Every structure is written in C-alpha cells, then in structure tokens.
C-alpha cells in the first residue's frame, strides 16, 4: 500500500501542479462559480486517485450541476480504471479469488442507496444509485444486488484482472487463508461535494480489504459508517479499516459533531480519538489500524484526520485541484 502510494503521490502531485497551473491561466470571472445563493462549489475525495476523480466531478460542479451527479461521475473514474486495484474493475479479490465490491451514495434529501459484496459489475456506485432511485429498498447485497443490477441493464463482466490474480496467488502461498489487517492492500474512494445551489452529496466505493473472507462487508456500503450527508450540516466519508469505522458509526458521528458546532477538522479529530480510545480499551495495537476521515460543512469549510501518517486527500474548488497530506494521531 505504502509503495504504491508513494509512487502515485509523485505522479498525482505532478498532475495537481498542472491542474493548478492551467487553472491560474483562466480569466478571473471564469473561476467564479458562485450561484445566486452565493455558494461556491467544492469537492473532496480520499487518496491520490482523488485528483482525477475530483477533476471529473468538477466538470459537473463548475457547470452548476448537482452534487449527486458530480460525486457519481467522480468516483466512477477509479472504479473504471484497471490499474486502481482497490476500487471497482481490476480490484483485488477476496481470499476465494472473487472480486466483491461495496458502494453507497447519499443525496441532499437523505435519499440513500447501497450495494455490498456485489460481483461482476464494473460500476457499483451506479448500481447503488439505481437502488436509491429505482428500488423500494436502500441496500442490496450479494446475488440479490447482482440480480437487481442485471435487471437494470448493467452488464456482467469479469473484474479479476491478471495483476490482481497474480497477487492473490502469491498471497495464498504465505497467508494461509487468514486475512491480516495491515498487510492487505486496501483503499476506498470516498467523495463529498457541495454544489452551486448549496446542496451536499456523497459517494463511497471500494473492493474492500484484499483477500478478505468471502461475504465480508466493510464500512463503505454502510450509510452512517463509510459515508454520511446531512444537507443542513455537512458531509463526511472514511477510508481505512472498515471494522473500526463501523464500530463508532464513524461518518454519522463526524456529521453530528459538526452539528454541535465543531469544525470539520475538529470533528474528524474527535472521531479518530474515539477509535483510539476504544482500541486501547480493547487491548488492540493501534499501529495495526489506519482510519482516515474527510469532512465538509455547509459553508464549504473542510478538514481531515487519520490515525497514522500516509493518508492524503484531494480538494478541488475555484482555486484548483490539489492533494493535501492529512494530519494524524500516531506521531
Ligand atoms: N474502508 C474500506 C473497507 O474497510 C477499505 C479502505 O478504505 O482501505 O473495506
């Protein structure tokens, strides 16, 4: 995970620099996306792949599009990228060699949709949105989620690509079918956005923890854990060990802390502190855990915090698209 991140970091910084450079070149008025309500759009997403994802979301936001459409378009970028091995197409499989995907989406009216342990569909976020808009339910998992996706016209395809299969076979030799939290490669794209109308939405999608037990769900398909949006207050999304995020209903907690008056930064810090305290109480080793939160409030202020160093996130607003290293607890 770390090597890949360091490698990508360099590339992403380069593309962020290009994005900033080209942005500066535009005339002033073109950069003013404030609406009649005076809101300026902004989008945040987790990890290096957030830069490219934000760019796709920004295309929607800068044209006064809806935050919901922006976050769906944004997270589809890493989902569809076969070289991104922790999200969507090309993701790492579970311990049985099956690529199972988790995703959820939430809009400004508290409409929600989610899929868990979904196989064979390249864009789980689009299926989550279909669950939200076209089913009477909010969450579908496994075979039922696949059945629903096919009924909606999604195409069944192989998601296990050569590189991931090779890695899995290698893993089988040493890990004896026991997923060990911190040696697995896993990341999530979580994206939260505020549009020119002042509305918030979010999306979250992942292939989860590599080599996990079949059927394992992390936080990413769980509204309130991996993602939460309250259009009066703010939005939050998470990455890292889903088990720990679920334990504290992480993103709902972050939004509730913002409701109590905390800044997005302080809200993320307090949510991380809860995980830290519970980990210690449970006599588990904090060094084995990584969790990062990003949060955005209704005013467009944002923040992030994580347990250990190495987590970064991308922010795109009228002043450009850039990567930020999140502050962290274990120094
Ligand atoms: N949160 C994801 C999960 O637990 C993985 C990650 O973001 O690293 O499935």
TrEMBL record:
Residues of the active site: 188 (nucleophile)
Site keyed Cleavage: positions: 187-188
InterPro entries, alphabetized: Ntn_hydrolases_N, Peptidase_T2, TAT_signal, TAT_signal_bac_arc
SUPFAM superfamilies in the cross-refs: N-terminal nucleophile aminohydrolases (Ntn hydrolases)
Superkingdom of the source species: Bacteria
Protein name listed in UniProt: N4-(Beta-N-acetylglucosaminyl)-L-asparaginase
Organism this protein belongs to: Flavobacterium limicola
Residue sites binding substrate per the record: 216-219, 239-242
GO molecular function: hydrolase activity, acting on carbon-nitrogen (but not peptide) bonds, in linear amides
Family matches, as PROSITE patterns: TAT
A Pfam match: Asparaginase_2
GO CC terms: cytoplasm
